[in-house]
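Give me structure tokens for this 221-residue protein.
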Amino acid sequence: MGVWKVSGARAVDWEDISIGPGPDATKSYLYIGDIGDNGSSRAEIVVYRVPEPKPTAPVTSTKAKPEVTEQAEAIRLRYPDGSHDAEALIVNPKTGDIFIVTKIAISNPSLYEAVAPYPPGKQITLKNRSQLKIPSLFGGIITGGSVSPDGTRVALCDYFQAYEITLPRGSKSFDDIWKQPLISFDFGKRKQGESIAYRLDGRALLGTSEGRGSPIFQVEK
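Here you go.
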């Protein structure tokens, strides 16, 4: 659909991208997670929020000659308990609340939350919500996350497989979703699976691997 330079942003270690609401109710926003920290040494991480660009036809932008987004807003975040490496960013499609799932290989990953709205220019301390129990003998090495467009399901992936959590029927709080068990499913033979996303109609999950020319897998649910 085209290539865009994100105005007002810098990249330390961009890992995930999500979509959600923002200050202008008439627009949808991209949330770009500069949340990677392999050395667990960053004093803060950043999520850039920018109105979703509207592609034009025919596509003329390239990496060498990109279009430019509107000015991005930097949402500056810190963990309450030291630095963490993370690759999964999830945004509540109704409220714009941000959730980050840490990437950890020894035990179960932790879930952190920042509640919208976000004070401009101020560093926000994330809230440690819980640990997610990954149904895997290898523990959880979470590399991507997504939420369904209707906000009733969350999907996570690691290098080998994927997991889904479903909001209980009749529940009126998105927070209830984190109390439910994660159900694993086969997500295809990805070489180094680092992304997962719901299809726009919410009826399928899409994923791919790192590396040029990696195929996209689709699993219909």
